[in-house]
Design a protein that fits this description.
Layout (H helix, E strand, L loop, with lengths): L26 E2 L5 E3 L4 E2 L1 H5 L3 E7 L4 H18 L4 E8 L3 H11 L4 E5 L3 H5 L7 E5 L4 E6 L4 H12 L2
Parallel strand pairs: 4-5, 5-6
Antiparallel strand pairs: 1-8, 2-3, 2-6, 4-7, 7-8
Length: about 160
């Protein structure tokens, strides 16, 4: 499970493999229970709904996560008009009250869901925040990385160009 780590990062364990999803084919999104900020049950596949998605795993206590929120807001603004792409924040291990207050205070404009019991994070072997995954239109994970960076953005843009 994720926990605040000493030092400047927000890692609790070794980072996930960086780059393309492992294996000869990309893996699909696990069907693990998530919760919307208003308490509705959902899962990441339902949220993504056949669109290309940049998914950011984060927590309110994570200073490295905080540094990428403005960039995620800008990316969400740029992709909103497309209709075939979205940015999704997956907060791990926190209550809807904590996350909702933080989202309002920081003015986050992209979709947020909660993984309060680490079910999705555990299913993906995602033990650190921040982390970035890119999901294609077929629901396959085509990229896994740490904090949002040029490689993650390039993977997102490349996936958008594919049919």
């Amino acid at each position: 499970m994720l926990a605040p780590a000493a030092g400047t990062g927000c890692s609790a364990a070794a980072p996930p493999a960086k780059g393309a999803a492992s294996g000869s084919e990309s893996s699909g999104i696990p069907h693990e229970a998530l919760v919307t900020l208003d308490g509705q049950a959902t899962d990441l596949g339902r949220v993504v709904g056949g669109r290309v998605a940049l998914v950011s795993f984060w927590a309110t206590w994570c200073t490295a996560c905080d540094r990428e929120l403005d960039a995620l807001n800008r990316l969400a603004d740029r992709t909103a008009a497309r209709g075939d792409a979205l940015v999704v924040g997956v907060d791990v291990g926190e209550s809807s009250e904590t996350v909702g207050a933080f989202v309002r205070q920081r003015g986050l404009r992209y979709t947020q869901v909660l993984d309060p019991d680490f079910r999705l994070a555990d299913a993906l072997g995602q033990r650190d925040v921040p982390a970035t995954i890119v999901v294609d239109r077929q629901g396959h994970i085509v990229y896994r990385g740490e904090a949002l960076d040029g490689a993650g953005l390039a993977a997102f843009n490349e996936t958008l160009r594919r049919p």
